[in-house]
Amino acid sequence: MDFSAKSIKAVNLSLSKVMEGQGGALDLIEAAQHIVPFTAALCVVNRVDQSPVYLCDSYPDGAPKDAVQCYIRSTYVLNPFYNAFLAGLPPGLHRMIDLAPDNWKRFDDLPEAVLAQKEEIGFRTRGWPENLQELILAVDLPNGMMGEVSLARPSDLGGFEPTIVERFRPFYPLFATSFRQMWANHSNNTAILIEPHAPLEDFAKDILSPREAETVQLILKGHSSLSISLVLGIAVPTVKTHRKNAYAKLGISTQQQLLNTFLQWHGHDL
Q1: Judging by beta carbons within 10 Å of its beta carbon (0-12, 13-18, 19+), is residue 142 exposed, middle or buried?
Q2: What percent of the chain has pLDDT over 70?
Q3: Are 262 and 256 contacting, i.e. CB atoms less than 8 angstroms apart?
Q4: Where in the chain is the domain with CATH 3.30.450.80?
Q5: Which residues form the HTH luxR-type domain (predicted)?
Q6: What are the DSSP calls for 20-76, one per residue?
Q7: Which residues, listed in sequence order, are joined to residue 136 by a DSSP beta bridge?
Q8: Strands 92-95 and 146-154
C-alpha cells in the first residue's frame, strides 16, 4: 500500500485544483488514477426520483460513450447503486458487486440492456464495455443528493479486490471534500434542470394490491423469489402467487414485458 512521492504529489495537485475552484470532475478522475487501477470512470450526482446529473466520463467514444448517456436517460432506475442510494446508502466506498441483489437477472431483448451473467450485476447497458467491475466513491451532498465517482475495471484484470478498496480508503475524505466543493461551484453557476420522475413505488399502485406492488418493485430491482420472500416475510409460493396476479392485472406474462411496461410508464420510449 506504499505510494511513491510522485503519485502522492499528483493526487494532491489534482484535488487542490478542484478545491480551489479551478478544476472539475475530470480532475477527480485523474487523481484517482494515481491511487488504484481502472480503465474508465463516470461522475454524476444522484437525485431522488430524477435522472442523475451528468458531470463527466472517460469511456471511449462510440458505443461506450452512447451507453453512458443511455444510463443517464433510463437504465439508472434499475442500477443497484442508485436503488441503494434511494434506500439510504451511507457515503463511502462501495463495490457494485456488494450492492447487487442475490439473483440480479435482466432481460436479453430489452433495447437498453443486455443480459450477461458474467457481469457483476447480471446485465449491462447496451454498448457498455463487457465484464467490468465497479468501485464507487459515494459523497453526501446537500438536499438529499449523493455524488458518485464510479471507477470501472475489467474482471479479467482482477476487478476491485478488497485490498484495492483499502488502498483508496485513506484518500476518501479528500475526494469527498473536493467533490462537495466542485458541486457547490457547479450548482451555483449552472441551472440544474429539474425533471421529476415518478418513484418506483408509484408504479401500477392504482391497480395492484400493496403486496403485489411490493413484489413487482423487488422483481424490478433484481430480487429472486427466495429473496422477495425473505424481504417481505412471506412464503415463496405466496410470492409466486402475487407475481402471477400482478402480471395478469398488468396484461403481461414475462419479466421482459414487466420491464418494458415499467420503463414506458417511467417516461422512456423503448
Answers
A1: exposed
A2: 83
A3: no
A4: 5-189
A5: 201-266
A6: TTS--HHHHHHHHTTTS--SEEEEEEEETTEEEEEEEE-PPTTHHHHHHHHHHHTGG
A7: 94, 150
A8: unpaired
Question: 132: how many CB neighbours lie within 10 A of its CB?
Answer: 22
pLDDT tens readout for residues 259-270: 778 877 876 443
pLDDT digits (tens, 9 = 90+) for 58-115: 999 888 888 888 888 877 887 889 989 999 999 999 999 888 776 444 444 444 544 4
Taking the C-alpha atoms of residue 175 and residue 12, their distance in angstroms, rounded to an integer, is: 10
Residue 11 CA to its chain's centroid (Å): 25
Number of H helices, E strands in the chain: 11, 7
Q: Give CATH for domain 5-189.
A: 3.30.450.80
DSSP-derived secondary structure letter, 254: S
CA dist 228 and 219 (Å) reads 8
Per-residue 3-state assignment (H helix, E strand, C coil) for 76-125: HHHCHHHHHHHCCCCCEEEEHHHHCCCCCCCCCCCCCEEECCCCCCCEEE
Alpha-carbon distance 115 to 117, whole Å?
A: 7
104 grid coordinates = 440480479
Burial class for 139, CB neighbours closer than 10 Å (0-12, 13-18, 19+): buried
The angle at the Cα of 236, spanning 232 to 239, to the nearest 5 degrees, equals 60
Domain 200-265 has CATH 1.10.10.10: yes
Q: Tell me which amino acid residue 84 is.
A: A
